[in-house]
Design a protein that fits this description.
The chain is of the alpha+beta class. 47% of the residues lie in helices and 15% in strands. A four-stranded antiparallel sheet has the order 2-9-1-10, with helices on both faces. Strand 6 and strand 7 (219-227) form a beta hairpin. It is elongated and about 105 Å long.
């Protein structure tokens, strides 16, 4: 768990950071200063309008980051945390990127107005979301088709591919006769043999034409020869008596294309898995870095609106001591008031303040800026 916090001060940035680090590190937390560049502030009205939008944009971007990571795990089964690609081409684990966050001025120009900068960050992520949706749809389509073939090959006789099971000599198909394939539960074999010639009162069933072609643990596949003109009625009679009819045609799809199709789908699946895995790795890096920069914009915007001009606040990443999150927030609040020369008379935060660690990621009632940095890979 990490937090992006902004703390106002009256004296100097260095003094404020020293006080924050000394207090929190003594309590077991870690503090990493963030040097935010001077961003183009614009008008008060534009800041107010942007502030309303930033929370919504942040939620959307966090959702996409989480989605990309889940798809990456699903496709590549990675066990380690994802990596972020830095401007110089090197990489580092995402958690390390959080604690070493530095504004990328080359990619996100500080000369742009804040609304324009925000738009760029949001578009980075929405583009990824759209591309991933299309790629994932194609991937799931191929995976579903391959799973269906595998299921038919390895499943029971109710769904299993009949290629290789039904031999040409067992399937009689002439101008007047045809063969019906019926799947019979093993416990109904006796019923089948006793009734198959007279099912539904239908005549024109070839006597003693049934033959067991294949068995598995639960079912047997029988064939029976009937006149073509009564084939449909006979199939309906089978179903009414809880015997399952399998569709099959000599020379049809079951006679050879299934194996070729499986090979084609397996090759396509391997190709798409590699492509989607690489896309997710690259996209996670882009989306997460964009999200961190948006959080920086949000922290800067909230600090200006709350503390005024000129900007006098320190930004830092705080990694709270395990199981001491509430204590850490209270300490930051007390530090904030003391840095502003205010008397601290009571605790800053209590359990009754609400879901501080909920999905909103920010708490307006605190005297400092508080943004969560969700780390979905942990």
């Amino acid at each position: 768990m990490s937090w992006f916090v902004g703390v106002p001060f009256e004296s100097s940035r260095e003094d404020a950071l020293r006080v924050i680090s000394k207090r929190l590190e003594k309590e077991g937390s870690r503090v990493f200063p963030v040097d935010l560049p001077p961003l183009r502030i614009g008008t008060l009205d534009s800041l107010l309008a942007l502030s309303d939008e930033l929370s919504r944009h942040e939620s959307m971007m966090e959702m996409v980051v989480g989605k990309v990571f889940r798809n990456l795990v699903d496709v590549s089964s990675i066990s380690e945390e994802p990596e972020i690609t830095l401007p110089d081409g090197t990489t580092m684990p995402a958690s390390a990127y959080v604690t070493r966050f530095k504004w990328d001025a080359a990619q996100f120009s500080t000369g742009k107005p804040l609304p324009e900068l925000t738009k760029q960050l949001v578009e980075n992520v929405t583009k990824i979301d759209e591309e991933m949706r299309l790629k994932l749809a194609d991937f799931m389509s191929v995976r579903g088709a391959l799973s269906n073939i595998v299921r038919k090959e390895s499943g029971t006789l109710m769904v299993r591919n009949l290629q290789g099971v039904v031999k040409p000599e067992d399937f009689i198909h002439t101008e007047y006769l045809t063969t019906v394939l019926v799947v019979v539960p093993k416990y109904m074999y006796k019923d089948w043999h006793a009734t198959y010639e007279t099912l539904g009162g239908i005549e024109y069933v070839a006597p003693r034409s049934t033959k067991l072609l294949e068995e598995d643990a639960e079912f047997g596949l029988f064939r029976v020869v009937v006149l073509k003109k009564v084939a449909d009625d006979y199939c309906n009679a089978c179903r009414e008596n809880r015997f399952n009819v399998r569709d099959y045609q000599v020379g049809g799809e079951d006679e050879g294309s299934s194996g070729n199709q499986k090979e084609h789908l397996e090759a396509e699946m391997e190709k798409m898995t590699g492509s989607l895995s690489r896309f997710c790795m690259t996209s996670f890096s882009i989306a997460f870095t964009s999200l961190m920069h948006l959080k920086a914009v949000r922290l800067f915007t909230e600090a200006i609106l709350r503390y005024g001009l000129p900007p006098k606040f320190v930004a830092c990443i705080v990694v709270p001591a395990r199981k001491k999150e509430m204590k850490t927030i209270e300490s930051i609040g007390q530090i904030t008031l003391s840095l502003q020369g205010k008397m601290v008379k009571k605790a800053i935060v209590t359990e009754e303040m609400g879901d501080i660690f909920g999905p909103s990621g920010a708490v307006d009632m605190l005297p400092f800026i508080f943004l969560k940095v969700n780390q979905t890979w942990k």
